Amino acid sequence: MSNEHAIRRDLGPLALMFAGLGSIIGSGWLFGAWHAAQLAGPGANYAWLLGAVIILFIALTYAELGAMFPESGGMVRYGHYSHGSLVGFIGGWANWIAIVSVIPVEAEASVQYMASWRWQWAQDLYSVSSGHGELSTTGLILAALLVVVYFLLNFCGVKLYARSNSAITIFKLVVPALTAIALMLSGFHSENFTVGITGEDHSISISAVLTAVAISGIVFSFNGFQSPVNLAGEVRNPGRNVPIGVIGSIIIAAVIYLLLQAAFLGTVPPEHLQGWAGLAYSSPFAQLALALNLNWLAFLLYADAFVSPSGTGAAYTASTARMIYGIQRNGPLPALFGQVHP
After folding, report:
1. pLDDT, tens digit, for every residue of 65-99?
2. What is the pTM of this model?
3. Given pLDDT bands bounded at 50, 70 and 90, which one contains residue 119?
4. 5-10 own/partner pairs: CB under 8 Å, 24+ apart
5. Residue 299 phi/psi, 5° resolution?
6. What angle in degrees, to the nearest 10, is found between the helix axes of 44-68 and 29-40?
7. Can you tell me the distance from the alpha carbon of 118 to that of 57, in angstroms, rounded to the nearest whole number?
8. Would you state the torsion angle of the CA atoms of residues 145, 146, 149, 155, taken in this order, to the nearest 10 degrees?
9. Residue 1 has what pLDDT?
10. 3-state SS track over the chain
11. Is the separation of the CB atoms in 48 and 36 below 8 Å?
């Protein structure tokens, strides 16, 4: 028997929105604009806008469900309610596997980005051979320790998680916004928006835009809107605050991503462009910052490259823990997984 009464409703609308933003803005923002530009050229702006609109249609449904049925792990509960135990079982586990796999990915991303720091011990954490990169043994151990840190932030209580996540998310919002503004003020080339994907065809391809939405990381980034829904069981006044958290996080993230995409498209040096598809960068925004002599911005970007993925890892740890609790309440897990620590 689950002790649902032990769950505390400590989260307000701002903390819930930050939980969504913390999941949406992770490691993807450092490379998303570059990948989208490679696939769609100047049409990448439309790809981000279209992706946000598509996800909003999906998120509005879950925002309403989260307000009506505010439960911890709600994303795995609603399929059980609407389609029964079999479909709920398959859908719940599929969703959990998709979300839980992000946690080690973000931990590895943090360690991989540390390898770009100038210290030798950091550079030894990650190596590339024959075009294939992997973490060293030390790097893997450090990534595993980061996953433990994500767990501890959540285990010590929802208030500590909310406060730490809010602080990290504010940093994660300030750095991308500052990056976009600083780059655009330092050197903006409007003629870049007339360069085609291959350098020859200057028209914006609808199929390229749709491809960018699907495979450049846009949908993957916005998928973090699920976190506020999974935390709905711990929210004060969920009828009002869950929709605010879900919709607000998507809209704010969309604005940040559109700013970043416009800044990237406009600040790439024209001499680097023979067509967007052939544009090769290893650290897109950091390299642009260094090219424009914005060393302070490059330093911030390298710091955020560690903080941003870790913040997302902690947010997804919070979300997946609630999903396991929800799956237990659906029936297929032992009662132990439905117990709430005092």
Report:
1. 999 999 888 899 999 999 998 998 999 999 999 88
2. 0.85
3. confident
4. 6/340, 6/342, 7/72, 7/233, 7/234, 7/340, 8/158, 8/234, 9/233, 9/234, 9/235, 9/236, 10/158, 10/159, 10/162, 10/234, 10/236
5. -60, -45
6. 130
7. 44
8. -100
9. 44
10. CCCHHHCCCCECHHHHHHHHHHHHCCCCHHHHHHHHHHHHHHHHHHHHHHHHHHHHHHHHHHHHHHHHCCCCCHHHCHHHHHHCHHHHHHHHHHHHHHHHCHHHHHHHHHHHHHCCCCCHHHHCCEEEECCEEEECHHHHHHHHHHHHHHHHHHHCCHHHHHHHHHHHHHHHHHHHHHHHHHHHHHCCCHHHHHCCCCCCCCCCCHHHHHHHHHHCCHHHHHHHHHHHHHCHHHECCHHHHHHHHHHHHHHHHHHHHHHHHHHHHHHCCHHHCCCHHHCCCCCHHHHHHHHCCCHHHHHHHHHHHHHHHHHHHHHHHHHHHHHHHHHHHHCCCCHHHHCCCC
11. yes
| Mean pLDDT on 195-213 | 81
Site of tokens 């780059």: 183
Sign of the Cα torsion 141, 144, 146, 149 reads negative
In DSSP terms, 122 is beta-bridged to: none
User: Per-residue pLDDT for 2 more than 70?
Assistant: no
